[in-house]
Write a structure and sequence with these properties.
The structure holds 2 protein chains of 2 kinds.
Chain A lengths: L1 H34 L7 H12 L52 H4 L3 H9 L17 E5 L20 E5 L1 H12 L9
Antiparallel strand pairs in A: 1-2
Helix pairs in contact in A: 2-5, 4-5
Chain B lengths: L1 H9 L14 H38 L12 H33 L6 H23 L13 H23 L8 H21 L6 H36 L6 H14 L15 H13 L1 H15 L3 H6 L1 H23 L2 H7 L3 H31 L6 H33 L6 H6 L2 H29 L11 H10 L1
Helix pairs in contact in B: 2-3, 2-4, 2-14, 2-17, 3-4, 3-5, 3-7, 3-14, 4-5, 4-18, 5-6, 6-7, 7-12, 7-14, 8-10, 9-12, 10-12, 12-14, 12-15, 14-15, 15-17
Classes of the chains: A mainly alpha, B mainly alpha.
Amino acid sequence: MMRNTILLFGIIATFAIAMFGLTILPKMFIDEGVKEPTYFTPFEVTEGHRIFVREGCIYCHSKQVRAEGFGADFERGWGRASVATDYRNLLPHNLGTMRTGPDLANIGARQPGRDWHYLNLYQPRAINEHSIMPPFPWLFEVVSEDARPGREGLRLPEAYRIPGMKVLPTDEARYLVTYLISLDQQIAGVD
Amino acid sequence: MRTNLTKEKRKPVDPGSKQPNTLSVSELDRKARFVVMFLILSGMFWLLFGTLLALVASLKMHLPDWLGTAGWLTFGRVRPLHLNTMVYGWASLTGAGVALWMLSRLLKVPIMLRGYIIIAGVIWNIGLLLGSIQILAGFSRGIEWLEFPVSTMVAIVLCVIIMSASVLLMLITRRVKQLYVSVWYIIAAFLWFPLLGLVSSLPIFDTPTVQAGMNWWYAHNALGLWFTPVGLAAAYYFIPKVLGRPIYSYGLSLLGFWALALFYNWNGFHHLIGGPVPTWFVTISISASVMMVIPVVVVAVNHHMTVVGSFRAVINSPTLRFVVFAAMSYTFVSLQGAAQALRSANEVIHFTHFVVAHAHIGMYAFVTMMLFGACYYIIPRITMREWHSKGLIKWHFWLTALGIIIYTVALQGIGVFQGFAMIDPDVPFTDTVTMTIPYLAARSVSGVLMTAGHLIFAWLMFRMVYRPGEQPASPLIWNKIREEFAS
C-alpha cells in the first residue's frame, strides 16, 4: 500500500502547489491594486461588454497591449502597455490570444466616431473590402425610409444599400459602440 | 517501493498469469462492454457535431458573409462551441471510456460503479447539450476553454468525480501487485481533472487579470493534466501490448511521469507573455515550459526504444498506426511548445494562426489520433466482433493524418509570416489578414479530409453496433442498465 500513498500524495501535492502558485498567489498580488479604485462604469459600458462577450469578439481581437519594444503594438498606435487597472473589473476578462483582427484595447482613441463603428459592425466590408470580420446585422433594424422621422440611417456605400429602407442601430449596437469607444489607453491608468 | 520497481521492469505488460479469484480478460471485457461502449459512442456523437462546427467556423474565416445573418451561427459562437464539444464531449467522454477499460485490464478488476457511471454519462451528455444551446444562444461564460456555463461545468465535474470514485475503488480492490505506468497516468488524470474543474468554477477569480491567469492555468492544464495523461497511458499500454514486448525502461517511465507532474502544472502563464500580469509569474511558466523537455524526451526515448525493430507492425496494425502517429505528434508538439514559450519566439507567433495550429496538433494529432487507435483495439474485444473493413480503417487513418498535416503546414507556415508582418510596423494591418486567406482556405480543405475520416469512423462504429439481421441478446437498454447495477 506504500506505493499507493506515494502516488496519490505526489499527484495531489504537485497539483496543489502549482494551483497555489498560479491562481491564489496572483490573486493576492494583483487584487490588492485593482480592487481599491472604485470605477464609475456606466450602464451602457457594462451592457456593451456583455454583448462583446456574447458575440465572441475576443476570438479574433485581443485586448492587451504589449510594452514598447516587444512586438509593434505601440508603433501601430494600439496604446501604451496594458495594466491590470485598465479593465474596470468587467468580467469575464477579455485579454484574448488572437489577432485575426487588430487589438482593441485602445480602439476608442483610434476610432472615436460612433458612425464608423456602426458601419463596421453592420457590414465590415463597407469600410475595408479586405476585412474578414463577420457582419452583425442583428444589432440593427432595417426600417422604411419614412419611419422614425429625424433618425438618419447608416451611410452605407452603394453596394450595401437597400432601396427604400434605412438601417438603424438598435440599443444593443449603441451599448456595444459605447463600450468600444470607452476603450482608451492614451491616458495613464483609468479615470 | 524500490523492489517493486525492479520487479516490474522485467515483467511483461499485462501478463496472463491467472491467480485465484482473478477474472479472465474476456470476463473483464464483457463487464466493461456496455459502459465503455456508451462512453465511446457518446464521444463519437460529439466528435461529429464538433466537426460540423469546425467546418462552419473554418469556412467563415475566408467567407465572412456566409450564413452572416444568423446570430446563433456567428463565428464568435460557433468557434468556442467547436472547442467545447471536442474537449468535453469527444475527447473527455471517449478518453474516460478508454481509460476505464485500460484500468480494468491493468488492475484485473471489473470497472466499478458501472451503473452510476452510465447515469453520470447521461447527465454529462445532457449537460453538454444544454451548454451547447446556451453558447449558441449567446450565454457563453466568455472564458476560453470554459465557455460552457458554470452549471454545465459543475455537472461535468460531478460526473467525473463518480468515475474517479470508480477508479479509486478499482485501485483499492486490484488483483495485481505492481502498478504499471499507465495506471499512474490514469489515476493522476482522474484526480487532476475534477480538481481543475472545481477550482476553475470557484467564484473567487473576480478581477479580470486574475481571471485571465486562472483561465490559462486551467486551459493549459486541461490538456496537460487530463488529456495528456490519458493519451500517454494509452501509448504506454498499446505500444507494448500490440508488439508483445515490455516497455524499454521502467526508470524512464518513472522519470517521465513525475517530471510531467512537476512541470506541466506550472505552464499556464506562458499564454500571457507580454500581458498585464506581474512578469515573474510569466517567467516561472516559461521556465516550466522549457523544463517540459525532460518528460517529453524521456517518454519519446522510451517509446522509440520499445518500437525500434518492429516498424513492420506499425504499418500492419490499425491500432499501432494511430498510436505511433499520436505518440510522435506528442513529442513534436511538446518540443514546439517549449520553444514557443521563449519570449523571443513568442513575440513573433503570439496572437497568430501558428498557435491555433499548435493547439490542434496537441488535441488532434496527439489526443484524437490516440483515441482512434485505442478504439480500434478496444471495441472488437468488448463487442466480440471484427471490424467491418480493414481498408476503411486505412482510409480513416490517411484522411485524418493527411488532414492534420495539411492543417499544420498551412497554418504554422503562414503563422510565422503573419507574426513577422505583425511585429513590423511598416506593414499595414490589413496585409497581415489578406496574406493568410489562401492558407485559411487550405485549412478548410484539410477540415474536409478530416471530416471524411470521421464519417468513415462513424460508419465503422455503426456497423459494429448495428448488425442488420442479427438479433441482440438483450434488446432493452433499461435491462442492461439494471444489470450493471446488479452486478
